[in-house]
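ok so i was messing around last nite and threw this chain in just to see what happens. nothing serious, just curious
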Amino acid sequence: MENKIYLYTNLENRQMMSFIVTTKDGKVIVIDGGYDSDAAPLLSHLQEITASDIPHIDAWLLTHAHDDHISAFSVFYEEYVGRFSCDAVYYTFPSVPYFERYEKGSAPTLARFYALLPVFGSSARIVSTGDIYNVGDASIEILQTYDDTIDYDIVNNSSTVFRMKLCGKSILFMGDSGVIAGKRLLARYGKELKSDMCQLAHHGQDGVTQDVYEAIAPEVCLWCTPDWLWVNNNYLSNDPKTVGMGPFTTLETRAWMKELDVQEHYIAKDGDQIITL
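result:
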């Protein structure tokens, strides 16, 4: 294996987040995974990468409990038990009642996840801010976990933010962190957020604010962003007449990256991406 980051796209052209990271010393790390429909492709990718019908995952990291991030994980433990193995699942999520109080529509996704604890519980690792985990050559530092006093955009703002260091590079994963999560990050770390690579928050739109990206100052951006979202079209629409007329702020984020003179972008709209470190 090589030190690589695989960024995957959704077959239905929806926004989602799914990464596989491999290390030169043979470790395999999955980040989120996407919707239910992304589970089968993810298993195929793992089989191909590991050259095994029953791939082994050394670490599976979950950012937050939205269905476009963790539903594929649930499918693995509902339908694919015995077809893969996993050493450790890293996450920290709020309670179902918290979701029901502030974002009721997302509560079933979280409840589904918790219902699978008897299946994967022995490999569960509840993370906390400041934790550092070593997975072979990769070092993973948890920079931020949820704050249950937040009562706005609570699922996105509950995203676990972590920085991976591999092959001399630092890669910041922000999940769907929103404005409040970004302010917390900036207050805690300031310019220490500086990272070589950055996964753009919330699929590149309506996530953290410009000053957070200025502190990160990435050289490479990873966009979990389909084509319609990239150009601010209506949801799932590729009608050229409505480009720029959607409700999304992707064009603003793209302008920020231009101001920061980011030269290298890997974008889900262009299909599955492979970054060799």
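not much to say yet. The chain has a mean pLDDT of 97.
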